Amino acid sequence: MNEIGNQVGLSLSIINRAAQSYFTRELKHLEIGPGMQAYLLAIELNEVISQDILSKRLSVDKANVTRAMKSLEQLALIKRETDILDQRKNLISLTKKGSIVKNEIITISQKWIEILKSSLEEGEWNTFNNSLLKIIENLEDIKTNTK
């Protein structure tokens, strides 16, 4: 790998570790870790979603979703019910407590974004954000074509 590739990898690693540290600290009082926040953020307020759709929405395997839902259910942040039309499916929705926690996570996440944006001009941030979206889209295409 060339020097630029190494620098990109190192930069992504540093940003990821900083994010993990920030979210671990900021979410501690909510009794959830950084891994659980994505699940709560992926469930819309007043939405009822199957675990399968949640798995696709987050690009994670179904076993991870099942484990996460069990933890979130134990914390009374989500409600999990069997689909009456298809007994094989679990339907997930946020509880009132889950909705409150989700709103707190949104506030914490917005503060993190402001930290990231603080060193960039608006145009630089928009370019960076658009580049990330292109990379994600490309990764989704690669993932879809390798199955």
Please explain how this structure is put together:
With 147 residues, the protein is mainly α. The protein has a single domain (36-145), classed as Orthogonal Bundle (Arc Repressor Mutant, subunit A). Helices cover 69% and strands 8% of the residues. It contains 6 helices and 3 strands. It has helices at 3-27, 34-42, 51-58, 62-74, 96-117, 122-145, and strands at 49-50, 78-82, 90-94. The chain has a 3-stranded antiparallel beta sheet with strand order 1-3-2. Strand 2 and strand 3 (90-94) form a beta hairpin. Helix 1 (3-27) packs across helix 5 (96-117) and helix 3 (51-58) packs across helix 4. It is globular and about 55 Å long. It starts with a helix and ends with a helix. The model has no long low-confidence stretch (mean pLDDT 90).
Which percent range describes the beta-strand content? 5-15%
**Cα gyration radius (Å):** 18 Å
DSSP helix fraction: 55-70%
CATH architecture: Orthogonal Bundle
CATH superfamily: Winged helix-like DNA-binding domain superfamily/Winged helix DNA-binding domain
- Rough outline: globular
The rounded distance between the terminal residues' Cα atoms is 27 Å
The counted number of beta strands is: 3
Cross-sheet strand order for the largest sheet: 1-3-2
The helix-and-strand class reads mainly alpha
CATH fold category name: Arc Repressor Mutant, subunit A
Q: What is the helix tally? A: 6
User: How would you spell out the order of helices and strands?
Assistant: HHEHHEEHH
The major β-sheet equals: 3 strands, antiparallel
User: Which runs of at least 5 residues are low in confidence (pLDDT < 50)?
Assistant: none
CATH class: Mainly Alpha
Q: Compute the average pLDDT.
A: 90
Q: How many structural domains?
A: 1
